[in-house]
Amino acid sequence: MKRAFVRAALLAVVGWAAQARGGERYKATVGHAPARGPADAKVTIVVFADYQCPFCAKLLPVLEQLLAEHRREVRLAWRQRPLDMHPDAILAAEAALAAREQGKFWEMQALLYAHQDALARPDLEKYGQTLGLDRKRFAAALDGHKFVREIEKDSEAGVRIGAYGTPTLFVNGRLVRGFLDHDALRDMIAEEITEADALMRKGTSRAGLYERILSGARSEAPREGASEPDPTVYQVEVGDAPTRGPAAAPVTIVEFGDFQCPFCARVEPTLTELRRLYGKKLRIVWKDSPMGFHPQALLAAEAARVAGDQGKFWPMHDRLLALQEELGLTTIEKAAASLGLDMARFRKTLDEGRHRPHIERDVESGQKLGVEGTPTFFINGRKLMGALPIERFRELIDQALGR
């Protein structure tokens, strides 16, 4: 019971941080995207999504429920953002738009998300048959890649306003990265309805609401992985965070990470190679930034800290990132046992939530530093976002050593 309480309390902290990111507005246009709900809705939600993204699949029923609850107030537009890491995502997006051509976009979308592990060409043709599509017309659209340019334009438009990953939502232009549950989105919708009502009282027509709301919105977001790193030098406190490398090292990399984030796992070999290359010149620091849409990340963050009480933070850190697709209490306890931890002490400390304040402080400090996703790194205070090539890290490290 204690563990459940602690996790719920932490989730509230992280969930608030996720919502806070949605404050700034961006010009998220609907254009020719498939849309549901009235064109003069008080709230327009534009989603950039990928058909192989598990969090997009998880988000879909949440949006369906919200549409049902707000039939007159909410419009949903779906734009294509297939990611390079998902080999079948582009063809699946083509199939969705080819089905749209025959009036069956939403039906095809439901099938694609229900069968994310089966998105090869024969699978897509089978779904087309299930929906009663004209087989020749559907096949011709896929063979000729009729909708590839539209997909490319969607992706380009998404990246321009901050849709670097999926799902990315714009709620009346407010940027929200990642999965949000029903209650969090419902609250955002309620805020937007209140604002829309206020605009209407001042004379804005329902038909002109979305244009009016986005009138002062940003047309571009800061680009992830831009050629020039952020020149700001941030003051990042190490405090009592877990560290690798000597305290006197001339270069410190502080990572804000999430144990369920695939990009945090992907960047680990890069960090290992950097430690090999720079040796005692480099110190690496871990700060927790569990995302609200990763259901086991909070528990994993606590477990790593508890393992640290027995001198095994980094071995547990490495195990958790390697096991992130199977994370859960059973897997975590097996990992702890495999490291030879005192399991009675491990379970007791985990149940007590002793490390909750440390994780909360990490989340809060990340917010102040502008951490919006994971992994985010600070190399002697210079910010670098994402699982980037090793050359990007070496550039900043070498600059720091030169100074």
Structure explained in plain terms:
This protein is α+β, with helices and mostly antiparallel strands and 403 residues long. It has two domains: 20-213, Glutaredoxin (3-Layer(aba) Sandwich); 243-402, Glutaredoxin (3-Layer(aba) Sandwich), CATH 3.40.30. Helix content is 50%, strand content 12%. The strands form two sheets. A five-stranded mixed beta sheet has the order 1-3-2-4-5. Strands 6-8-7-9-10 form a five-stranded mixed beta sheet. Helix 11 packs antiparallel against helix 12 (313-322).
Number of domains: 2
Protein structure class: alpha+beta
Widest sheet: strand order? 1-3-2-4-5
The end-to-end span amounts to 52 Å
Cα shape:
globular
- Name the poorly predicted regions: 1-22, 223-227
Q: How would you sum up the major sheet?
A: 5 strands, mixed
What is the number of E strands? 10
Structural features:
single chain, 403 residues, five-stranded mixed sheet, Glutaredoxin, 12% strand, 16 helices, disordered N terminus, 2 domains
